[in-house]
Amino acid sequence: MGHVVLDDTTRNAMVGKLTGLSNPYTQPRHFAAEIRTSLSVIGANAMMDIHDFATAPDSPAVMLIENLPTDPHLPPTPLDGVLTHTARSYVGEAVTYGLGKLIGEPIGYTTEKDGDILHNLIPAQGAETMQSNRGSKVFLNFHNDSVYDESGWFHTYNADFLVLYGHRSDPKRQAETIYIDAKTICAVLSDEDVELLRQPLFQMAAPSNFTVLLNNGEKIWSRLGGVISGPDNAPEITVAANGTRGTTPQAEEALQRLKAICDLPEHSVSVRISAGQALLINNRKGIHARSTFEPTFGPDERWLLRANIRRDTWAMRQRKTDMWNVYV
After folding, report:
1. Where are the alpha helices (DSSP H) in 73-180?
2. Which pLDDT value is given to residue 39?
3. Which of 157, 142, 138, 283 is nearest to 210 (CA)?
4. Alpha-carbon distance 137 to 159, whole Å?
């Protein structure tokens, strides 16, 4: 895992550039323009590390950045999903968006958080056992963040990277974000299993946000594809939190062995994201999960920000909507 810790001088200089910002949820284009220079003071060494994370095939697939600016007057966690925009400085949003710009282009999807480019991840009452960011009391299975596509494959237009920023950790400090990369999985699996996982013998379920909110809860399965793709020295992995299945007994057995490897902590990294920390995640090199935690549903409940980052928006130009930087 890559690791960057900003010094206090750098953090304070960043704070000085994050004042008087527009509302990122109602004026995203203005907000984006205002913060493009906000991370210019981050320093050459940190910039190089973040650039390598985003561009080098052999770089670590996950990076933790610490001692980032935080909102000085953060309101209680909005458990009803209604954000309080009065007396907000939007420092967390600016840091999340700014980091996203360093590694690509933050975009929104119409099927995720109503097209918002910045997502507030907060546990929801009544959704404790959902396989989504709204859950809490169930293990959120290893997956890539994906997006529904009518072509039948849900990982073509998904984010290349994710940025997760901590407004607040959960009060009991139980929630862990866990990551394992495809290279590690392939090294532990047998050659025969890797070869099976490369074949078009698997189906992935559409993401739960599409299934629950837009398809009356009915699960949709993808067309056949492989779980592993790409060269042996830099493989890509494709797995869905809402379900992945092999279509032959041998394929399903190989998939189960892959899942068993993911469950072994010695093969993964885990982070309890705290306030002022950001986790950069490569959404293609590996898969991530979230542990169970006991929600309090109080004013200090867990509150993360997330941004989906694409390196190439031209390839998905046919999915562009009339909303700024939002895609179907």
Report:
1. 91-103
2. 77
3. 157
4. 26
Residue 293 has pLDDT above 70, yes or no: yes
- Asked whether 109 and 319 are in contact (CB, 8 A), the reply is no
Confidence check: pLDDT of 30 > 70: yes
Which candidate, 274, 279, 203, places its Cα nearest to that of 242?
203
Length of the chain: 328
Interatomic CA distance for residues 247 and 115, integer angstroms? 34
d(CA 195, CA 204): 18
Q: What are phi and psi of 313, to 5 degrees?
A: -95, -15
Q: Classify 174 in phi/psi space as left (phi over 0), alpha (psi -120 to 50) or beta.
A: alpha
3-class DSSP state for residue 244? strand
| Region of residue 79 (left: phi > 0; alpha: psi -120 to 50; beta: else) | alpha
* Mean pLDDT score across all residues of the chain: 94
Q: How confident is the model at residue 85 (pLDDT cuts 50, 70, 90)?
A: low
Tokens representing residue 199 in the block: 């074949």
Residue 33: partners with Cβ closer than 8 Å, 6 or more residues away: none
Q: How far is CA 311 from CA 38, 66, 161, 182, 306, in A?
A: 20, 24, 8, 20, 16
Q: What is the pLDDT of residues 221-276, one digit of tens each?
A: 999 999 999 999 999 999 998 899 999 999 999 999 999 999 999 999 999 999 99
Helix (H, G, I), strand (E, B) or coil at 304: strand
Cα(267)–Cα(187) distance, integer angstroms: 10
The token pair at 288 is: 């991530």
Is residue 257 within 8 Å of 221, Cβ to Cβ? no
d(CA 127, CA 133): 9
Alpha carbons 289 and 284: distance in angstroms, whole number: 14
